[in-house]
Design goal:
- With about 70 residues, the protein is an alpha/beta fold.
- It has 3 helices and 4 strands; from the N terminus they run E-E-H-E-H-H-E.
- The protein has a 4-stranded mixed sheet with strand order 1-2-3-4, with no helix packed on it.
- Helix 1 links the parallel strand 2 and strand 3.
């Protein structure tokens, strides 16, 4: 199953948004940790499993994260 996950970051503040944290949350968490990213938002485009599968694990790893939002 293909996964279309995006990481968008403000270069000045380093605040970051993840769009659709798919089914590989551990890979995503490793990338965020390696890049020392300050995750602030998770945005979901829709609720298919390949778009929302990693939400809970990413949230657990980022307790300062604001609520998840959808479009």
């Amino acid at each position: 199953m293909g996964i279309n996950c995006y990481i968008i970051q403000d270069e000045k503040t380093k605040e970051t948004m993840i769009i659709d944290p798919g089914n590989l949350p551990q890979n995503l968490i490793e990338i965020l940790d390696a890049m020392q990213i300050k995750l602030k938002y998770i945005l979901l485009t829709h609720c298919h499993g390949d778009h929302i599968g990693g939400v809970n694990k990413v949230k657990e790893n980022n307790p300062e994260l604001v609520p998840v939002g959808g479009v």
